[in-house]
């Protein structure tokens, strides 16, 4: 009963549906979905409104998610450690921690560091969800059962064994996100902006930057193919956006009606993301419907034709174009490296990157689709560059000359590799250099050379303040000064050759 109460409190489902289903003994779906129902329904409606306003097809409103890769990672680590610890140790292993708690055996775990694309809080929330769903069990151990460890249940052991025997055919690990996970997944503020409560720091490019003299050779700055669709620069039609909203309502009503007739939960017919994709792509046949990601052949066979009839009829009445699928180049399979880089980004940054770099939308077109300013999208793309993702610099008006000018300013006094603030750099650059150029070049440099964070001294110690270069070189440093530098010099700095050859500006390999 305690577990059920935890599920109820943390669930993102309609609370009235959950209560009625529990006491009536069967799934109840005829209630909910209004702003006077419960807190979860109000939140869902608000998210739906925001997604439609942005005209996005990538943001999912379905609270169920495929956690297959994350579950495999966590289960593998728990199996490796024989279920001898709580959640904290497996999470430290997944995040590649250098904590003193990490033994050599733990660091030799095959999954060591493979979960660093998710935050510590995310893994803890995921672990708690698995315990509520009885995939993980907590056991008392030690003298007097004073300590607790977390181990895999029989349920998770069966699923994990299946994934190892038939990797490509194992059942997807789909769970309903709880409120804690959903809040983390939908966080809009980039991680770097969440440091406002932390002590102020100076961000200084690592010593490797000075060793390489900050040179970004022209040959090393390759651009992605410029294969932009003719639709890229097409302005969004306000009337079409209104019609999309009307079509979405019709499809949702039909989906809910079919679910009630078959006694199914609505998501078991089509998820909200499926409906959004139908609105955006407007398939005219079952074959076209099968091109939409995440819709199984069984669902298409059973429910697809009814949806197609509504879509084609609506498009004919309102003169809307059907089968508006992106070019095949934009939907190509991504390399494992690119997929890993995407997982390190927040959902809103992922959406921007997919539009610009994968679907090859122009920056103005992507901004209109997202309902954001171009400056915001530039910030998103800079974050993508920092994690090593390829970005077309030509589309951002970042030329080799601009790269060279900004790099020279950053390397020279009085900046001395300090990239904490953009304004001092901008003041030393020619008038044609814009803030967006500086953001992108700093991202390129950080991706290649890394960045050290040096705490800003208090007012009392400002008299004895040393420049970042002095702090890094250890000139007249006292023991206290040495303790203020949290990151050591990169081990590979001596081996970095002159010239910028980072993968984040090379051609995307598929």
From TrEMBL:
Residues 456-510 are annotated as: Disordered. GO terms for biological process: DNA repair; DNA replication. Signal peptide: none annotated. It is an enzyme of class 5 (isomerase). It comes from the Eukaryota. Residues 479-493 have a biased composition (Basic and acidic residues). Keywords: ATP-binding, Helicase, Hydrolase, Nucleotide-binding. Residues 241-321 form the HRDC domain. InterPro entries: Helicase_HTH, HRDC-like_sf, HRDC_dom, HRDC_dom_sf, RecQ_Zn-bd, RQC_domain, WH-like_DNA-bd_sf, WH_DNA-bd_sf. Residues 500-510 have a biased composition (Polar residues). This is DNA 3'-5' helicase. It comes from Stegodyphus mimosarum (African social velvet spider).
